[in-house]
Amino acid sequence: MNFEMVMQELEALGKERLKKMYLSNGAREPLFGVATGDMKPIFKKTKLNQPLAEQLYATGNYDAMYFAGIIAEPNSMTEADYDRWLDSAYFYMLSDYVVAVTLSEADIAQDVADKWIACGEDLRMSAGWSCYCWLLGSRPDSEFSESKLAKMLEQVENTIHDAPERTKSSMNNFMYTVATSYLPLHDKAVAAAKAVCPVEIKSDKGKSKFLSAAENIQKTVARGKLGFKRKHVRC
Length: 235
Fold this sequence. Notes:
Helix content is 61%, strand content 3%. The chain is mainly alpha-helical. The radius of gyration is 18 Å and the shape is globular. This is DNA alkylation repair protein.
């Protein structure tokens, strides 16, 4: 399938209800409103295709950018490529669920995510923390440095309440993911989650919601899901 064919199929799959939902979450025109599950049949036709992914991502169309993440070839992308993609990721559904997800399947994932976490820019930091969540939830514990993750937990505990709003959410998810998917630091992550709970997230509309990683960890423990690892990060 070529670029024009993919765009035509995406447009045909668009639903007004989903378009409104994506817009309410921060997406902007152009977009079609395609359910992510409905993209799988197109992927079967395109397979992984980095040149096509680049064409689609460059459109600025949310659905095309999301599908670009599905068909990208993570290890063919350089750090500069990931930075370029993140430059165009104008809201969290792109930064955390497209760019960070794609990066999590690359060999350079931790190195790039570390730089994003340290950069001071909200969506970049959020993408960095989110990338670690995808990594921890899919890769063997042996691929991570326990001491490094312990320091990251301490960083979250000490700074989460002063972090930008989107980064707060990703940091909160990081504590949950360490506790449930990286068993060597389960107890430390639980302690950190209890120490910072609740985490207030303020919306642009002035409303607040409160996150509790500690409660979500307890629910996962109760379901017997500790040590959970995904077989695949991307759909």
